[in-house]
Every structure is written in structure tokens, then in C-alpha cells.
Model the fold of this input.
Amino acid sequence: MKCAPAETDFLVIGAGVAGLRAAIELAAAGRVVVLAKRELKDSATQLAQGGIAAALSDEDEIGLHLQDTLNAGDGLCNPDAARYWWKKVQSASKN
Done:
């Protein structure tokens, strides 16, 4: 482990995009230390899939979009919340 400063104004735990963005914002207000698991590249950010999926054509299998979301969440998604947003996206994509 690399040596961290003895004093800091802000400690950010996590070196993914959110942690690094927080560190950038905090830097104007004081000294910031960012803790990472091992290497900066070891965050989950590179694994995140982001975006919004919707069935836009008649060839899409609409029911698979929700299941894809739940599978990508690897058990971390709330199925009811995913279903709610999936329905919202489906209706919004038709407008």
C-alpha cells in the first residue's frame, strides 16, 4: 500500500467514475485523498452498462428487455423497480 498523507480535508472511498468526479469537485475546497481497492483501473465503472434499452421494432422480443436488465444487474436490481422503469421506457419510446 502506498503511503497516504497524515492529514486530509476529504477522504473519497472508491476510485470509479463517481469517486473521481467527487474528488475533482472537492479539490477546490481542500486536500483530497482517494482510496482505491488496488489499482485505479480496478473499479466497477468499466463493467457498468449504462443506457436505456427499449424494444423499438416489431422484430424485438419485448419481454427479453426486462430480463436483460435483471441479468445485467447480477442480482443487484430490484425486480419491481426494473419492471416499473422498463414499462416507462416502453411507453415513452412509442411517443
